[in-house]
Amino acid sequence: MADFSFLPTLTTSDVDRAAQLIQLGYGPSTSTTTPEDLKRLQQELFEMQRRPEAWGLVIPLLNHEDPNVQFFGAHTAQVKVARDWDAFPRENAEQLRDLLVQLTAHSIAIGRGNFILRKLFVAIASLAIKLVPGHPSRWPGWILSCVQAFSEQGGSAERIQFLVIVAEEVGTADLLGASKVQMQQSLRDAIPLVVQAITSSVNRSVSISQFQSALLTLQAWMTIFPSSDLLPFIPILIGLLDPSDDNEAIFIAASDTLQEILSKSPLSDGAATKTLTEPLLVWLDSVGSSIIAQTIQNNDVNEVSHSLSKLLVALGDHSALYIAANISSSIPVIPGKTKGYLAQTFLRLIMAYTGLQGYYGADEEESALTLDFWYLFQEALWSTEYFEDPEDDVPPPNREDPVQVKMAKEVYIELVKVLRRKVAFPPPPTGWGKDQIDAFNVYRRDVGDTLINAFYVLRDDMLSYYVGELAQLLADEPNWQDVEATLHCIMSVQEAVDLEKAPQLARFFNQDILGRLPTTGHNRLRRTTLSVIGTYSTWFTLYAKASDTPADPTLLLNVLNYVVTALTDPALCLQAAIALRNLCDTNRKALAPHIGAFGQLHDGLERIPDSEKSKILQSIASVIEALPAQEMIPPVQAIVSPVVQKLVSALQTASTLPDEARTMVILQLEILAGISKGLTRSSEGPYGDADEDDPAVQAQIESIKVAREDPRMQQLRNDTFSSIRSIIDIWSTDAEISHALSDLFKSITSLPSDITLISQPAGPLLELICVAAQKQLTATWLSLAAILIAQLNPPSYSLVVKSAPVAGR
After folding, report:
1. Where does it sit, as one GO cellular component term (predicted)?
2. Which of 4, 202, 230, 606 maximizes the CB count within 10 A of its CB?
3. How far is CA 750 from the centre of its chain?
């Protein structure tokens, strides 16, 4: 019996009071105990535990008949070791060590609950972290000594739980230098013991809880074990993957452990293909296939099937390079089964989970787990010698694709078809709540990322497939959910498409496809179509420049008409306004001859929601910018004057109708900022990519300066400045208006090379900012001041670049 005379002795009343506090504070609640009472009781208990004498609570509380009180006794031991160790007498450390081990062994012997034992195990591990480091160590062989003490009490299952906690606690301990090395060495010294303990418990003769604890121990020690100690467990674990067993918990525990080996052990990152990858592939072919077949037949993913989906994903993450390199290999793994066959079987099985029947989030959740694999597989394919580098400027020689490439493309063609089906919404009414719709939209975005990886493998074939699929869907009685899903896929891959080499889009934007899409109702379909148009807006200009044959001029106008039709629909106006802004910004020159049609659009502006008017006027201004400078004057006056007039009107009512005036001012400032952005020279314009010293650019700038001298433009700029000054006088401390002014100042001022007809000089605006800053200094005004000061003294980049070197330097 360990000596515990070194612990403080508390009176019976103190111990009884502590037990009473525990029972009142943590026992079953009563109607007479208020939250304030509970807080007071727990605080009193906490204060009692902080006292040095609280060491004396451990034994009497552990010996109490109430399990809650026993738990608090174990918890007190853990807390005192972890928090109050510095105040504990060093000469009693070994006695405390022996006492804690004995108390724990006794608790095992009398069958105390696992929640109590866990606290005692944590207390022992915490004490070991204090005693093991040092020379000489005050607790050499601590793991072995504890396990032996527990085993003498018949605690084979408990020793497994102890080993889990040891790995967890030491792994997260805040240790440095020699202390950390010494603790890690104490774990390595115990590896033979741990291996023996796990091996003796990983069989069907032990209880399921002990079996699960053993595998949890293996997972906890996985990063400590060398690979040589892990390898013998792999065939054992694969052998436990038996779906015919009545106890599915064994299958799931073995699968979870294999997943950890694949992802976190020394065998991760593609190692051990002969002992890990290939045995699992053989098992998938012989046993895993039947699980998936039953899943598809029953249209139900049970717990075993869900665990298998995670195992497939883990194996794919681990062995993507192996699968890519051996997709067509004829080297046998076992008689009658080659590496190529097993790799193709794996791809077929993971594809089955990617394409599970039903809708993600409503009927299944496994399909999303597989998406990352298709990215890793594409990267692995590129790392093989079979694929050319798509970024290589030197075209590969004309030759037939090797069989490996053909197989990979067949896999990704199937993936493209499967994912197109999976992203389709169910027919209305779906009956889905907002959370379900949001989750499905997140899934669709994730699928979009996966489709980009597929595009890098398939390239033009993928876009051709989708456009052909659309044409086929629209030829008969269309399933609009499938049409919308295909449009979503086309939109998702835009960032990977070389727009200069995408003739398939000419077919998409013509009347055979876009012309057959609905222009009324079908809001989700039309919203996606508008997003596709906005995403591919630069295609019209880039393809026209790169193509040998002239582009159909009606394509852009037909697309524009489709967009404009949706502007007045509140459910679609946001996507329509964005699409229009993108189209006009990137196709200014092509749209400039049709400026009259934009005048009609401006006349109907009142039918468009206020929230999108700034985008519409920015679109119109973008087209105006492509006109000759003198021809810009009337349309600029036509779109800017009404905005300034509304600002003046709002200022006049600021004292009588302050809220309405403020709202109107914010809206008109946003619109004016949008117009200013639209009028700013674009890289798409006739001189956008040219050097500032280019004569054509200089001529363009000079023509703008001449047009600025027109009395109408001078008056317009003066009226604009007066309105801005009045707004700052009234609302300079208003955060929303300050934000709107900030956006306007950034867009309505410019360097000399980007000057527009309505650009304001930086100096007077800087004076207004100083006035506003005197009233209330904010980050907005400071940031704007820095920008305008830089415009007043712009760096001479061309001078720096082109100046000749000074001789002698």
Report:
1. cytoplasm
2. 202
3. 37
Q: Are 111 and 153 in contact (CB under 8 A)?
A: no
Q: Are 361 and 436 in contact (CB under 8 A)?
A: yes
Dihedral in degrees, nearest 10, Cα atoms 729, 761, 716, 621: -110
H/E/C letters for each residue in 247-303? Answer: CHHHHHHHHHHHHHHHHHCCCCCCCCHHHHHHHHHHHHHHHHHHHHHHHHHHCCCCH
**AA identity, residue 596:** G
Interior angle at CA 466, CA 463 and CA 472, nearest 5: 140
Q: Which CA distances in Å does 696 have to 315, 688, 703?
A: 61, 11, 11
Half-sphere exposure in the Cβ direction for 131 (13 Å, CA):
24
Q: Which residues contact 717 (CB under 8 A, 6 or more apart)?
A: 708, 758, 760
Q: What's the pLDDT tens digit per position in 189-207?
A: 999 999 999 998 888 788 8
Cα 194 from Cα 545, distance rounded (Å): 70
Find all residues with CB under 8 Å of 787, minimum gap 6, and list them. 745, 746, 749
CB-CB contact of 610 with 665 (8 Å)? no
For residues 646 and 661, the answer to whether their CB atoms sit within 8 Å is no
Q: Residue 803 above 60 pLDDT?
A: no
How many angstroms separate the CA atoms of 754 and 190, rounded?
73
pTM of the model: 0.86
Rounded to an integer, what distance in angstroms lies between the CA atom of residue 291 and that of residue 309?
A: 10
Q: Which residues fall within 8 angstroms of residue 150, CB to CB, at 6 or more apart?
A: 104, 105, 108, 158, 159, 162
% residues pLDDT > 90 (the chain): 73
Residue 301, classified by CB atoms within 10 Å of its CB into exposed (0-12), middle (13-18) or buried (19+), is buried
Residue 338's pLDDT band, with cuts at 50, 70 and 90, is: very high
- Half-sphere exposure of 279 toward its Cβ, with a 13 Å CA cutoff? 16
pLDDT tens digits for 448-503? 999 999 999 999 999 999 999 999 999 988 999 999 999 999 999 999 999 988 99
Closest CA to 280 of 251, 256, 311, 303: 311
Residue labelled with tokens 């000469």: 91
Cβ atoms < 10 Å from Cβ of 742: 20
Least confident interval from 198-212, 521-535, 757-771, 776-790: 198-212
Strands (DSSP E) found in 725-798:
none
Determine the straight-line distance between the first and last CA of the chain, rounded to whole angstroms. 88
CA dist 677 and 339 (Å) reads 59
Total Cβ atoms within 10 A of residue 562? 20
CB 534 within 8 A of CB 582: yes
- Tokens, residue 764: 């007077």
CA distance 649 to 641: 12
- Tell me which DSSP letter residue 519 carries: S
Rounded CA-CA distance 556/562 in Å is: 10
CA 354, 357, 361, 363 dihedral sign is negative
- Indicate the length of the chain as a whole number: 809
Main-chain phi, psi angles of 337, to 5 degrees: -130, 115
Using an 8 Å Cβ cutoff, are 542 and 500 in contact? yes
What amino acid is encoded at 491 in this protein?
M
Torsion sign (Cα): 698, 598, 611, 540: negative
Residue 398, pLDDT > 70, answer: no
**701 has a pLDDT exceeding 60:** yes
- pLDDT tens, residue by residue, 425-462: 999 888 899 999 999 999 999 999 999 999 999 999 99
